[in-house]
Amino acid sequence: MKTLLVTGGAGFIGSNLVRLIAREGRYRIIVLDALTYAGNLENIQDVVNGDTVTFVHGSITDAALVASILANADIDAILHLAAESHVDRSIQSAAPFIETNVVGTLVLLEAAKAAGVRRFVHVSTDEVYGTLGPDDPAFTEETPLQPNSPYSASKASSDLLVRSFVHTHGMDAVITRCSNNYGPYQFPEKFIPLMTLNAIDGRGLPVYGDGLQVRDWLHVEDHCRGIMMAYEQGKAGEVYNFGGYGEEKNIVVAKAILKHLGKDESLLTYVADRPGHDRRYAINPRKVAHELGWEPEWNFEDGLRATVEWYQSHTAWCENVRSGEYRTYYQRQYEQRG
Ligand code: NAD
Ligand code: DAU
Fold it and tell me: Which of 28, 206, 290, 316 is the S-S candidate for 3 at Cβ 3.0 to 4.6 Å?
């Protein structure tokens, strides 16, 4: 059985990816995750078994650690998801974004090259393309990179490093860029889980600016299937965009969440806009449909309802995140088990 190194596998998308791969049972997995505030071992605790799925606590910026993982396992591919991922945090402080997203990606590329890892799958974002006007066509793989936030600038920088390793060193790498993910296990700093947990708690839902910004919502399970297709079928050096045909205004999404939960719209609280706020994202996923045979299986209406219900029914997960317990308890449990 081939082995995959999944970086950031305790985060939102990474943990859904680890669960998908573990469920299918076709690969061994090593998860490398630093367990920052965004990493939560509870997300994968039931699939980590020390055999087909193992967990290594550490940073992608630790070159010696990464080299030793690659030296001790015959890794077919690195599925690279570890990142600082929240735009608002990058506005407060950009340095951790450069350290993890740029320096960390470079460490992984150098180590993969030295160890002869067969394929590098770099998970990036549609935010590298910048923002769209209301009538602009959706982003394609040919759209120029015009990142607007420190977060998206760091992701674009890492994309360009990957591109340079393909061009200069002949590395077999593919880059995936997707629109906004939603679904189970998303940390409630992001829009949908934040709005959902606030609504459940009867707290205000902070809507930035006029709330008319548009995001193209993609269910995380569809995205994870796409990452695996890009790994298994993608062509070296190619970029693949994944989108959910799920464009919606933020205010409409917030109202739909309130409706699902039977809460009043008086909870909507308009707050100051995000500086440099991108107005609209939308992905044209025609290339992945034609070349990989990928289509999203979720529509946004059903996916949003199922997601709200997931947060309603996973009260222990929500409580551990709210209280901060997730940062210590599961890590201690893992370390006690050895
Ligand atoms: P997340 O913030 O939920 O998880 C990030 C994970 O990376 C966490 O487990 C964290 O502990 C880990 N991590 C952070 N720094 C690390 C380091 N130095 N070394 C090792 N691990 C580290 O992020 P996410 O939403 O799951 O996003 C995963 C990837 O997908 C990111 O690269 C992000 O840019 C990209 N992406 C996310 C979305 C989205 O909507 N969430 C959309 C497009 C692209
Ligand atoms: O497009 C892909 C990107 O989607 C990923 O690369 C990022 O990692 C991910 O965080 C996400 O970025 P966004 O900035 O679009 O997501 P966020 O959930 O932070 O915000 C979604 C929209 O909701 C955005 O227009 C800002 C708005 N918003 C967000 C928060 C947290 C609010 O109105 N209020 C809020 O409190």
Answer: 28
